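User: Here's a chain of 150 residues. Predict its fold as tokens.
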Amino acid sequence: MDLFIQIGIIIITIAFIILMYSIVQTLKVLKAAIEEMRLMIGQVRTDVSHISEDMKEAIHNTNEMTLDVRKKLSSLNILFATVNDIGQAVHSFTGVAKESAANLATTLKKDQRQTVQSDRNTSKRTDGISTAIVDTIISSLRIWKRVKRF
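Assistant: Prediction complete.
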């Protein structure tokens, strides 16, 4: 029976040695995997820090570009306001010019009718034309003052 106990102990010892060898081999593989993960994590940290710096630079450039665009847009707002003012001045000028032309045409028609009349009517015709010319000059001066303000 001693022999059976010794054989059992030898078998248990061999099984224990095989088990230990397997565990050691598994631990070596795990150690290598852990080392590789450590190196990979270090590389990821380096990459993330580079990406962070690039992102900060990109954000900074975007902020500068945004400020530049805002500045240029505000300049365009001033330009559009000026164009609007000029358009209003031209519109006023054309309105006054139309009125003056209509008044002048009306006056000229009246003057043509009055040429048939006597000398007294002739003096009125001259007064009508001169009144139309004076109105045109006054309107032009008003428009010129408005344009100068812009």
